[in-house]
């Protein structure tokens, strides 16, 4: 008599989404489409968003406490406004529920610390949604820099320049402090640079709101120093027609028209890397060096993959105890601290030095 073996994997984990706005709906779509998990419930304070739950045929709640008590999900994706991240996260912790929280982890360093201390006390895992770390392009760039393929890292230059349309600012919070490109957009790039290049130990920034005249920055120029001694520069503006930003060069999100350009350049003693084209420039054989000799260009071709899909699969493994968070809560706090230091430096017109210890 033949014995039949089962190749079935683990049961799908039950995940709820709290916050049914734009990014929350994206998470709902991904959870619903994944074989690793199933959508358990949806929560939003706006009852008009109950139709999202009807679409997915899951319960809808206006009170996340009731959702956590009645549905007992194994994991929660927090996609609420930033000011609610810490409160929702602590409620999840007290119910023993692991969380994936959208960036930034919280509205302030103090709130983030309180959230993480409660999470540790209840033994739950916190994964912060800096999803670009799951990109094959970002992971390859990190490997090349960290493994010395460029030699010793000397410098990095980053551009984030594009034009946000006028109707973007019809949403009130986007015209108030915290709604500018530093906390909304640059935080992604700072997390990328921390992940690829190592810890940032100081920032010196200038910001301007001269183009739009709103009470938020629209342009920033930032100098960085990394713990390794490498230097960095970032130019940020959401007021200019430009293809040089992560969004428009990476091809990561299909809603943005991709351009064949680069947004980051990494410079080392043995070579330089353009990102996301993944073009490596160096002298052939390393024998004839200097500007009188031709450089060789080598192309790294990588398959593109949706980092949000990879992040969700990773979150399911975190919930099952198979992996530790790629971006832990404390790691996400460091990115928040670095980003807030940019605004603080601009306010003080002086460098801000960061504690890079664990």
What percent of residues are in strands? 15-25%
The percent of residues in helical segments reads 25-40%
For the biggest β-sheet, the strand order reads 14-13-12-11-7-10-9-8-15
Q: If you average the pLDDT, what whole number results?
A: 94
**What is the alpha-carbon Rg in Å?**
22 Å
Q: Describe the sheet with the most strands.
A: 9 strands, mixed
Q: Spans with pLDDT under 50 lasting ≥5 residues?
A: 1-6
Q: Could you tell me how far the N terminus lies from the C terminus, measured between alpha carbons in angstroms?
A: 58 Å
The strand count comes to 15
Give the CA-based shape. globular
What is the H/E order? EHEHEHEHEHEHEHEEEHEEEEHHE
Query: Structural class of the secondary structure composition?
Result: alpha/beta
Provide a count of the helices: 10
Please give a structural write-up:
The protein contains ten helices and 15 strands. A nine-stranded mixed sheet has the order 14-13-12-11-7-10-9-8-15. A six-stranded parallel sheet has the order 3-2-1-4-5-6, sandwiched between helices. The radius of gyration is 22 Å and the shape is globular. The N terminus is likely disordered. It is of the alpha/beta class and 358 residues long. Helix 4 runs parallel beside helix 5, helix 6 crosses helix 7 and helix 7 crosses helix 10.
């Amino acid at each position: 008599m033949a014995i039949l073996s089962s190749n079935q994997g683990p049961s799908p984990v039950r995940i709820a989404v709290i916050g049914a706005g734009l990014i929350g709906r994206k998470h709902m779509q991904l959870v619903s489409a994944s074989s690793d998990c199933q959508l358990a419930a949806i929560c939003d304070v706006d009852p008009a968003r109950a139709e999202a739950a009807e679409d997915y045929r899951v319960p809808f709640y206006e009170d996340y406490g009731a959702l956590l008590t009645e549905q007992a999900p194994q994991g929660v994706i927090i996609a609420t406004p930033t000011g609610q991240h810490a409160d929702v996260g602590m409620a999840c912790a007290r119910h023993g529920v692991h969380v994936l929280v959208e960036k930034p982890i919280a509205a302030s360093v103090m709130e983030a610390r309180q959230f993480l201390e409660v999470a540790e006390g209840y033994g739950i895992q916190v994964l912060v949604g800096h999803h670009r770390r799951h990109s094959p392009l970002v992971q390859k760039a990190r490997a090349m820099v960290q493994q010395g393929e460029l030699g010793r890292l000397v410098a990095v230059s980053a551009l984030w320049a594009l034009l946000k349309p006028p109707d973007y600012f019809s949403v009130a919070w986007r015209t108030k402090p915290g709604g500018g490109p530093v906390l909304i957009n640059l935080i992604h790039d700072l997390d990328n640079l921390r992940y690829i290049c190592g810890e940032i130990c100081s920032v010196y920034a200038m910001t301007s709101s001269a183009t739009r005249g709103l009470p938020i920055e629209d342009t920033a120029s930032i100098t960085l120093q990394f713990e390794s001694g490498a230097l960095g520069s970032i130019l940020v503006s959401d007021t200019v027609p430009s293809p040089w930003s992560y969004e428009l060069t990476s091809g990561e999100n299909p809603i943005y028209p991709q351009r064949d350009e680069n947004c980051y350049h990494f410079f080392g003693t043995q070579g330089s890397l353009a990102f996301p084209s993944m073009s490596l420039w160096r002298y052939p054989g390393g024998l004839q060096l200097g500007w009188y000799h031709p450089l060789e260009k080598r192309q790294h071709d990588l398959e593109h993959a949706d980092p949000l899909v990879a992040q969700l699969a990773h979150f399911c493994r975190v919930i099952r105890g198979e992996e530790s968070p790629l971006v832990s809560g404390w790691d996400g706090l460091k990115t928040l601290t670095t980003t807030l230091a940019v605004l603080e430096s601009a306010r003080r017109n002086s460098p801000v030095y960061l504690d890079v210890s664990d």
